[in-house]
Automatic annotation (TrEMBL):
<feature type="domain" description="Glyoxalase-like">
    <location>
        <begin position="5"/>
        <end position="179"/>
    </location>
</feature>
<dbReference type="InterPro" id="IPR025870">
    <property type="entry name" value="Glyoxalase-like_dom"/>
</dbReference>
<dbReference type="InterPro" id="IPR029068">
    <property type="entry name" value="Glyas_Bleomycin-R_OHBP_Dase"/>
</dbReference>
<dbReference type="Pfam" id="PF13468">
    <property type="entry name" value="Glyoxalase_3"/>
</dbReference>
<protein>
    <recommendedName>
        <fullName>Glyoxalase-like domain-containing protein</fullName>
    </recommendedName>
</protein>
Length: 244
């Protein structure tokens, strides 16, 4: 069973600069380490609800990397992951429901303290859908705990992610196949509840530059939009947001 939003991926050019900027926004940022392929390194902003932001930067050119194509557009929100209970079974169930999904594939990284962590990922074929990230080593090794989840700005977790879709009905059908659950239609879009958070599908329009993850709403703290210069292009708000 897919239980919740695992993490949000934010592409940055300079990881150290991004760490400084997110710290200035009141977040506690934890260095993550170098990924197994050596192409990327990251830092994490972990929340009390168990989800986190992943600030990721390329260490070298990597044309074959799944996220390399986003470097042409600059920094910002590029992807997000859901957490499965058992990734092999969840992938098999999604396929039975008609979803095209690749994997699971092995992944991992080495933390700055030398601890090696491992996971498996699976990725649907279309950009409106998130990927799955299931732990092989204990999740607490991958996601910081304790004081790392406390933030000066008061943020406690994910409220909603907004995802731009070219065709809402077709995208909703793919989400039903992935999650095994129905969404609720409103004037805003189509909402799928997942744990304490929600995924909201909204229509792609002239304000949204591409299909896929386009905005993020966080819980806790003082409501307001975060400075995109500090978020490195990511559209992030504390409190209710609009797809516009």
């Amino acid at each position: 069973m897919i239980t919740c939003i695992d993490h949000i991926v934010i592409l940055v050019r300079d990881l150290l600069a991004a760490i400084d900027d997110y710290t200035a926004l009141g977040f506690t940022v934890t260095p993550g380490g170098v990924h197994a392929d050596g192409a990327t390194h990251n830092a994490l902003v972990a929340f009390a609800d168990g989800s986190y932001l992943e600030l990721i930067a390329f260490r070298r050119e990597a044309p074959d990397h799944v996220w390399w194509r986003f470097t042409a557009d600059g920094e910002g929100l590029i992807d997000f992951a859901l957490l499965p209970d058992a990734i092999d079974e969840d992938v098999a169930a999604a396929r039975v429901r008609g979803l095209e999904i690749a994997g699971p594939f092995a992944g991992g990284r080495e933390r700055p303290d030398g601890v090696r962590i491992a996971w498996k990922t699976a990725r649907p074929a279309t950009p409106d859908l998130p990927f799955l990230c299931g732990d092989v080593t204990p999740r607490d090794l991958r996601v910081p705990t304790g004081a790392a989840r406390q933030h000066a700005n008061g943020v406690t977790g994910m409220a909603r992610v907004l995802v731009a879709a070219r065709d809402l009905a077709e995208s909703a059908a793919r989400y039903r196949a992935l999650l095994g659950a129905e969404g609720a239609t409103s004037t805003e879009g189509i909402t799928f509840l997942l744990g304490s958070s929600a995924i909201v599908l909204v229509a792609l329009n002239e304000h949204l530059r591409r299909e896929g993850l386009c905005a993020l709403e966080l819980c806790g703290g003082a409501p307001g939009n975060l400075d995109p210069a500090r978020t490195h292009g990511a559209s992030i708000r504390i409190g209710a947001l609009s797809p516009q």
